[in-house]
Amino acid sequence: xxxxALGVTVYINLQGSLPRLEGHLDGxxxxxxxxxxxxxxxxxxxxxxQRSDTAFALGFLHAQERxxxxxxxxxxxxxxxxxxxxxxALERDKNNRKFxxxxxxxxxxxxxxxxxxxxxxxxxxxxxYGLHSLKSRPFExxxxxxxxxDWQASDSFLCLLSMYLNLQQxxxxxxxxxxxxxxxxPAAWYHFLQPTGGQWDAMITGPQPxxxxxxxxxxxxxxxxxxxxxxxQPALGSNNWAVGGNLTTTGSAMVANDLHLTLGVPNIWxxxxxxDIQLQRQLTGITLPGAPxxxxxxxxxxxxxxxxxxxxxxxxxxxxxxDSDTMYLTATGWExxxxxxxxxxxxxxxxxxxxxxxTRWGPVIGQDNQGHTLAIKWVxxxxxxxxxxxxxxxxxxxxxxxxxxxxxxxxxxQNLAVxxxxxxxxxxxxxxxxxxxxxxxxxxxxxxxGDKSWQGFLxxxxxxxxxxxxxxxIWTANSQVVSGDELKKIGNSGYDIGARAQQIRDDLEAKNQxxxxxxxxxxxxxxxxxxQRWHELMVSLLDDPAVNHxxxxxxxLGNWEGRAGKNSVGYRLVRHFRNEVIDQTIxxxxxxxxxxxxxFSIPAVIExxxxxxxxxxxxxxxxxxxxxxxxWRAFLVTCLNNSIDDLTQNGKEPLxxxxxxxxxxxxxxxxxxxxxxxxxxxxxxxxxxxDGDDYMPRVQGPAFGSSDRMVVSPxxxxxxIFNMPTSQAGHPMSPYYGKGHQDWVQGxxxxxxxxxxxxxxxxxxxx
Length: 767
Prior knowledge:
This protein is an alpha+beta fold. The protein contains 24 helices and 26 strands. About 30% of the residues lie in helices and about 20% in strands. The strands form six sheets. An eleven-stranded mixed sheet has the order 1-26-2-3-6-7-8-9-17-18-21, with helices on one face. Strands 4, 5, 22, 23, 24 and 25 form a six-stranded antiparallel sheet that branches. Helix 2 (about 50-80) packs across helix 6, helix 2 crosses helix 8 and helix 17 (about 570-585) crosses helix 21 (about 630-650). The longest helix has 28 residues, at about 50-80. The two termini are about 45 Å apart. One of its GO terms (molecular function) is hydrolase activity, acting on carbon-nitrogen (but not peptide) bonds, in linear amides. Keywords: Calcium, Hydrolase, Metal-binding, Zymogen. Its cofactor is Ca(2+).
């Protein structure tokens, strides 16, 4: 009886935490009635009389569907995760507390215009109404034995700041690592390891002059005896592109976007559509639970997409401190650190004090190799570096208007690709670009003499911008977009190699007419163009008797499909071979530097590693031949055989069964299942093999890939395409939990707009 009663209680609580889909809610604090209809996938269409009511409705939906996700985002930025999930989050909380983002978010709310503050407040009221309208608190809180806390307007800024922490480096990892590398190897080696570009470049403004990549005359400056695994680091992601109206089947311009992020359950985005009566338009796209804005999408006049922009949005400042490390030097003399004691609460009732030190430039973040104290100056911590101006994009009617708004928007910096219904397209950076004086920001530097500073942000008229007419094409993929003086304005924090962008560019230049399905096909392009030369290198080794021919490698490489198909053995083998070569050469150099410096991050410096790696295997300099081999050919054959051994577990399994999909199997999990694994089958998405990989448009890993796919031509949204992993739902008993996921897995062209209404809910004001 006790077990039965417990089961009934659990079921009632689970049912009670499901979102309200139908009926009406009366006496709600809104100005007019709001109608929310959901289609079979749970995608809502909001019909409200004014934007503040739309924000209320969106907050209501986010809270009912995704409150736990929103809570994690705000707590992550604020350094308050331990209070909810326990001491396992303590180190993360300590790291994030040094930015004091909760206090900064509260100040941001005070600083924005009244209409934007009212929007955030209406959203917060909607969140709290949605949360309290649930019959039972969200199920995650029952499992954690916690109670959710109400939403504040400042929490929306915390969610945006959490995205900064996700998409940018709050520890200055790139600058610090580049400095360590520069200090660790001779200049010739540094330039060899870190070229400014190469054959994969695909800037939209055309190629830049390249300095030949010269192999250093000296031997390896460092070489670890430990096995390195650097080449298999997680890849960068996100693609967008646009084509002008003369190149589309609709006559309007067309934009495609797929945002690549770490994937989990639920998905980071929440789909939504709303009718804006005041602006007389319908907005459709993705929203971030926790914020009242349309992130990417279409308003019928423009459509826009983002990719993360790896410019230089922070500077690391090397402080000159006194002997007791209580003061630091400035141009006006010695100043004392401002010190705060941050209290971090833990869910067991205990707490920890974390000291935070601030300078006039920004918070202290640690030390360098020489023991110097370091501070960071970072855009989101600056006045107006983070703001609510993204809402302005909703009102843009043309590419020109969107490009004019972009420099004023305070979000994590993105490559904005925008298309309008008149057929024009454009690109710029959306986000605040620092205006540097006296420095380029490439390495940490001393600001104590007053000759280095930021003078606010770059004015809009100085922003790098590219506009194309109805016959144009634009593309970005986390690599360099422009060159020369325009690139200097943006800076560099670890651009991806241009292979993905180049493949997209070539796909776009291969045709003169595009439908939405054509652009989806580019998003799904998993051809292994980047690995082609590595495959050819492997084939050239097959006549060597030392190759493990009995494994069947000759047939596998001879039947190379040239794509990252889930059933391909050849792709997996070629990929592994490239990684093995890099790991046994440049990887051992980087491994040795990492062993000598805890301030060196290998992932921060390897995006261009293919250039020096290919130079080594193609030129085969005798003085750099790895120890223990009498020729480069012998070394490469060993790498080939090692790859076969690794994939077959030293011959225990047939090579022909080692498909790419056996490795590239989806593992999309809910955050609670790490602590409560018995819930995995209930909460997580199915494990299944998938196509795609790094260095191609279809970026896909087990838990990394396109968090959405969008193709839309403004004014023709009815023929647009949208895919999203997992689903809209955050609750496993929702009728649309997991719906739409298979369309994303298979790359099926599901509709951009919400479908016919399956459920309708009316929110009514006080009479």
